[in-house]
């Protein structure tokens, strides 16, 4: 992904016990998924920073 975004820090990147690996857990429809996989975006439009302590570090 561009602009330094990484799935590792995304809030939707969660561990799936059944698959025993990390997966993107965002709920999108087939059309959006196909556009994402075809590379129509420079970076993931669904990325959400999952760092809960980001605001706290900023306040220090």
Could you characterize what this model shows?
Helix content is 23%, strand content 13%. It has 60 residues and is an alpha+beta fold. Strands 1-2 form a two-stranded antiparallel ribbon. A hairpin with a 4-residue loop joins strand 1 and strand 2 (21-24). The longest helix has 8 residues, at 30-37. The radius of gyration is 14 Å and the shape is flat.
How is the secondary structure organized here?
Elements: E1 13-16, E2 21-24, H1 30-37, H2 54-59
Antiparallel strand pairs: 1-2
Short description:
This protein is an alpha+beta fold and 60 residues long. It is 23% helix and 13% strand. The mean pLDDT is 81.
Q: How much helix, percentage-wise, in residues?
A: 10-25%
Rounded average pLDDT: 81
Q: Segments where pLDDT lies below 50 for 5+ residues?
A: none
Proportion of strand residues: 5-15%
Distance between the termini: 29 Å
Biggest sheet: strand arrangement: 1-2
Shape, principal axes of CA atoms: flat
The number of helical elements comes to 2
The biggest sheet, with number of strands, parallel, antiparallel or mixed sense and barrel status, is:
2 strands, antiparallel
The ordered H/E elements are EEHH
**Can you count the beta strands?**
2
Oligomer: single chain
Radius of gyration: 14 Å
Structural class by secondary-structure content: alpha+beta
Which features characterize this protein?
60 residues, alpha+beta, two-stranded antiparallel ribbon, 2 strands, 23% helix, flat
